[in-house]
Structures
1.
Amino acid sequence: MSVLLALDIGLALLVFAVAARTVFARGAFEAVVDYVAYGLLLSIVWVRLFAVDVALTEAAIGGGVTGVLLVGAAARLRGAETVAAEESPSASLRVVAACLCLLVTAVLAGVVLLLPYPGPTLAPESARHLAETGLGNPVTAVLIAYRGIDTMLEKVVLVLAVVGVWSLAPDRFWGGAPGEARAAQPEPTLAFLAQVLPPIGILVGVHVFWAGADEPGGAFQGGAILAAMWMILMMARLTEAPPISALWLRLLLVAGPVVFLAAGVAGAVIAGGFFAYPPGLAKPLILFIETFMTLTIAVTLPILVAGPPRREPVE
Amino acid sequence: MSIGLDLFCIVAVGAGVFFFLAGTVGLLRFPDALTRLHALTKADNLGLGLVVLGLLPRAGSLLGALRLIAIWALVQLAGATAAQLIGRAVRRKGPAL
């Protein structure tokens, strides 16, 4: 027991150290590398808190996809970085910002430490009704059944993020494809990985989605793994990002929220409540919704990484 | 039998930890990017390989053991690819420091 406690304390200190490194890093790229390490350490923290679902999401999104997005952003900002450094705010402004940050941290820490123990919880209530959803994983039940509308709106946020990225495109590129054209000669090392890994990755992604009904996993984690496979293929230049005017792409981007919303409206008519599922049909309906959510996530994340269109549309 | 297995676990995982330690020392002490990569790949390959080997008898089932081996194989693939990519970038642009 004491060995585990020592490891936990060591892990917490390591998280603090890497967080400090991220904040005080000299350049954007160094900060991103530290931030990815920070995300992976956090996912170990979630495992130690027995929240494996959160750990999977943190590793896939916090460490993986966000890392790719930020590395891309850092590479694009490289030219502007020296200009930004010259315009750095005055010492007094930085002191004020630091004080405000400390204040927010102190208030957050105070709120967390002053919470009653044991805190107010709906966990027993949620566990009692788990059988009615037909699911074995309470996290999936909360995400898709109890708090379905929150999860649906989360996916709408992802679509809005894509709209935001696309709207950065100049008018003449609207409807075109992001990124450079497919190279005649792909990067050989990355191409090898991009040919070997996707069959395994797609299997693992579908498994994580499927297992999410009863074990840690689910649409978000499985979708993120599928998304990673497409990203590797695009990075190795074995395939290129589709033009943003492609109908199939737009359909897939909205499929998850649309199917979810339709099921919610159908619930209002059939099951007597917005986002209510008819008894007995909950499990198949949840899997149906999750399938489309997985597809939407698997498409949204690579499209976010690909960025705004940078080529004129081909007629 | 059980004591023998425990001993095997301890020796294999201990040896794995030694390679991770050696790899980390190499990463911190070696003079340039290519030699540091060399040290890192040893930690990935032999260190994780020996840890997985030591954990195999404790996997509980054949499926669990296969999963452990799959994890090792995937880390090999990712590690070897990343090392190749970094090595290529170093050769193309010259060492960063």
2.
Amino acid sequence: MTRGMKWALGLLLVFLVFDAVALTIVLRARRSSVVALSGKVVRSGTAAIGGPFALTAADGHTVTEQTYRGKWMVIYFGYTFCPDACPTALSNMSIALQKLGREADKIQPLFITVDPKRDTRQVMSAYLESFDHRIVGLVGTQGQTDAVARAYRVYFELHKEGGDNYLVDHSAYFYLMGPDGKFVDVVEGATPSDQMADQLRKLIDEQSSQD
Amino acid sequence: MRPIVAALAIAIGTLAPASAMAESSSMAVEHAWARATPKAATTGAAYVTLVNNGTGDDRLVGASTPVAEKVQFHSETNENGVMKMRQLLTLDVSPAAPVVLKPGGIHMMLVGLKQQLKEGQALPLTLTFEKAGSIGTTARVGKIGAMEDPDPHADGGE
Amino acid sequence: MSRIEETDHAGQGRMSLHWPWGPLLGGMMFATVIASILWLHRSQTPFVGGPFELINAATGRQVSDQDFRGKWLLVFFGYTHCPDLCPTTLSNIAESITQLGRLAARVQPLFITVDPERDTQQVLVDYTGAFDHRIVGLFGSAGQVAAAARAYRVYYAKRMIGDEYYMDHTGTIYAVRPDGTYATSFLSTAGSSEIAKSLRQLIGNDGK
């Protein structure tokens, strides 16, 4: 080995060590800043959706699955603390109801809170003032809420990491139940109101013509 | 000694343009808007489009508004029919593409609203970036379920 | 197999013995890493500040950055129709120079409007006076304001809301040394005590 080659090897070694250290620093600094709070993924089935429930409307009346028999129930599960998805869904539904005109008379839209701790009857009633007045807000005890969520295969999970400002994962869909109380289909909450009105009209017409 | 000289020459040669590029990012905030909130709602949502006109990455590290106790960044995804919201501590803004906050995607969540947001109002919002520093903006308040900036063509130049 | 062949070829290569491949590669990696580190940390050494020509609202006279040499500057860009950021920041600046006590004599806070269309001389005097009479308001032609903003890498843009317009703008406060060089900056989230403390340190280290 010549003197030059020894130099070369020595320098290479020094640079490689330096590079390793420096790269570690760089990579640590560049590490993704997105810190997602962990949550489980749960699939919700579509079989046997629906069933008996007992909840309280904002005006204090008890509402069960029997209350609206003969009408099409369109049910959304959400919470008032939700800043984005729930206003989108409720606003789309409000406009869709107006677009449906007389046909909307066949529909009973329901907004069931999955966050009964924060969403009292008063909160729900004030919140829904900003949407179509035909949407009825329903609250229950934690037990009643769990039961209706189970019946509708609705998934919700509280994330208490945020303290009092906790978030709730919740179903993205409106559940459409026929006049006999049987599950018909789901309509995504983010569906633009025009499409939502069309979908509802189509589903209702199809079902009615079969009868 | 020649190898060292060669190495140094290359090192310096590579460094010169790199240091010339070393300048702070230049961030533009477009389409700042928010949604009107329902009565009794304690949260609201605001959206912006962040355009990094600089040469290097930057990062949105915080936001504030006088009408809410705090502002958080959230991602929202629909996973198998479940709407999941997750808090993001920061948002990377690279020069490669604008970061668009929008309903159903990433949004700013106004937590602890001190007043109801009404359509047509102007909502002051201050964003803090790692490199671009603080930028004050004013968001247009649109309808409750608005899906986009109520006045997307109203932003002028300087 | 192929690896052995390559090694053989390299052994026969004319350049391999004479060229210092090790240091060359190492050097390039070294340079890349240094460049990345500089690139990552460039925010800490921003080239901020520079010449400007504006009009002092208090006197109505043309001023340049040169006229403020010898004083520590606190430079903040904003506008008087600003709903939240500017009042908060100007209060913090006013409060911080009050906290500085006698040292405040060596500090000159400047409020440069990014809205010269509405922020005329008298409007600016009234506005800055509401916070602290030591804050000097500066305005100018649209071009002069744009040049000052460019020097400080300040971003601003007009935004219409209904019939009213608002200005988006950088809300960072820049501290400039008596020789006109950039010292440090404060985010709009910095409180008055943080600004005062930092200024006291800077002025103290200046050894005057």
